[in-house]
Amino acid sequence: MRSELLKKVAVRVSTSNSNSTTIGSGILIKNQSNDCFVITAGHCIHGKKGELLENVSLDNISVKYKYNNEDSFTEIKVLEIVYLDSENAENEDYHDIAILEVENFGKQADNVKCASFYGDLDKSTLKFRGFPQWINEELNESKPFECVIDDDDNTKFIVKSEDIKDLSLMRSINETSNGISGSGVFLEKEGILFLLGIITDLRDDKGTFGHLLCRKIGSIVEKFNFEPMYLPCGLNNLYKWQKIDKELITDKVNNFQELNNNHFINLKRKCGVLYDVNDVDEMVVELLECFFEAEINLEKLYKVNPILEQNIVNAQIDLKRRVRRIYNRRRVSDKEAAQNIYKEVIDFYVNLVVSDSGNDISNSILDRSSDRAVTQLLINCDLDFIEETV
Predict the structure, then answer these.
(1) How far is C-alpha 152 from the geometric centre of its chain's CA atoms?
(2) How do the domains of the chain map onto residue ranges?
(3) This prediction's pTM
(4) Residue 92: count of CB within 10 angstroms of its CB
(5) Is 222 exposed, middle or buried (0-12, 13-18, 19+ CB in 10 A)?
(6) Which of 39, 97, 182, 320 qualifies as a cystine partner to 25, CB 3.0-4.6 A?
(7) Domain 3-237 CATH (choose: 3.40.50.720, 2.40.10.120, 2.40.110.20, 3.40.50.2300)
């Protein structure tokens, strides 16, 4: 996993009153309404069992963020404590989770998704990032850790991390883990960080073998307009092209044709250059069907994978600039010349998307989204070749 992804969402969380201070870690995340939150361990807000802080309020809580350890901290304003089950903090079945609504922090967490799982990720390498106290007494520096799932049930799971051990044997796990409570445990796939749970404690008092207790959050965050994806089967939907109802597509095509505006006229005129005259109306319908199917699919995929949206939107912008500069108002001698330009534009688009997405994107999405991208250029008259007349 690229540690840069975790650096975007890891925060330091602290709560103070007149008597004591608790400090831990947390993660930035957004719900489906684009509201911004920090999820952390409950005891990072109200203190540990037997040491609960009194009179905790927004004024007592501090959330700070930095991308690089050498950077200065930026304070993120806490707006509301939306979940904190402090009344049950002394009970054995306490979830030990806190959710804070915070001020908008931009696009940092756009690639984070909540996830639910049960028993299917045992061999996957996971990562978390926290602010361990042994690195810096003030917990001013964060560090990434790798781990694997060792055991899990409906509400919690155990991870084992070799990275948390002090190879010099001078510090115990109890010492090296201090400060990482509240860290999010993630699976990274296709450029997305899937939040599986929050580190809340050592598995036992000594942290034997580097085992950490993590709480699953799926059932909790659902109350706040999050939609956890179930793993691993949900991973298949990251780049899955779905079959769209034919009637819906036909209605969209008919509505577009009935408008008979400049966009429709542009497309029909370009098809007259690209294809035989007898096939123009048929090709217009075919292009529009592919165009609307792609639009509907991409909208669904963007909700699951915002990284894909970013890559495709950026490719479309770069494509439009290049086409305007090189191909606009280009005169062509025949249909073959026009089709060669069409293919060149598609190839350029594919290269743009692949350069951003690597091998993560499927050929079916490349093919269909490239047809959509070029059809959009034809509709908007950005790709405006003209057939020469003798």
Answers:
(1) 24
(2) 3-237, 246-387
(3) 0.70
(4) 5
(5) middle
(6) 182
(7) 2.40.10.120
